Amino acid sequence: MTDTKDPLAQSDLHNARGIELADRGWLDEAANEFRKAIELDPKSAHAHDNLATVHAEKGRYREALTEYLTALELEPDSPTAHYNLACFLSSHSLDMAVSEYQRAIEEEPGYRDAHVNLGITYADMGKYDEAKESLKTAISLEPDDTFARLELADLYMDDDELRDAIAQLKDVTRIDPNEYEGFLNLGICYAQKGFYAEAERCYLRALELNAQEALIPYNLSALYALWGRPDDCIRFMRQAVVLSRDEVLAWLAEDNMFDAVRELPEFQASLTAVPEGAGAADGSSDEDDDAAGDADSPEPLTK
User: Fold this and answer.
1) CA 145/CA 124 separation, integer angstroms
2) Tens digit of each residue's pLDDT (9 = 90 or more) over 39-51
3) 196: how many CB neighbours lie within 10 A of its CB?
4) Which CATH number does 1-92 carry?
5) Could you read off the pLDDT of 130-144 as tens digits, one per residue?
């Protein structure tokens, strides 16, 4: 029989009652029981952990995190406490980030960085329409913000909305003529639309701005493969391989843009003829000196 005068025993009763209520889906009532358990025994890690789980289920992420950390502070060697905190972070960290960014924006609607990062977080969650709107808001607050425009252009490119992507990327290259990513992505858009000359111009400008990024000569090589210019294709593929051979081979394995040249002996040679250690120091070789992007669930509530 439970000692009704023992606060620790009473705490355990409230904790057990909270678990029963939570199992029935009565989360608010369960939370009240866990609070009573904690009031009777503030060092009850199980009660803090269980209250955290209820908070998470209710979308009260900040409160949940506080309780999970309290449980871990009380029992730092508990594998369950570590596991449940990890599950919470892996499952709800993005939701919590959205909630906090939204709160920041409520307090300061003109907070540009909050809008940008909210957009990026939405994109990570697969909520692309919300991401675009947040990034558009950031751009309206700071029209010369090239970072937000690049992120927005990426979303447009992923959705095959190339006209909108091109508009953003033109603004990027106008605002900052030294932003190589703007020229690189603009070249990708033009190539996808079949505007090869415009794509070539953008890629070459990107290469002029950053000669160490393997993706630029790789895309030039792909462009020339599509354009029917195998010699240029091979020349720039060699340059890309020198810069980052492993990456290039991984890209090439899934890229059908090279189907027209893939079996050419000269093309195959461009993938294998790089000396050992080429590109380790400055990303170039003598041959190339003349070359123009189910979650775990917490354990059940514990007694």
Assistant:
1) 21
2) 999 999 999 999 9
3) 17
4) 1.25.40.10
5) 999 999 999 999 999
Structure-token pair, residue 145: 């913000």
- Tokens 């701005």 belong to 209
- Angstrom distance (rounded) from CA 23 to CA 26: 7
Interior CA angle at 271 toward 270 and 276, to 5°?
Answer: 100
Domain spans, the chain: 1-92
Check whether 165 has a pLDDT greater than 80. yes
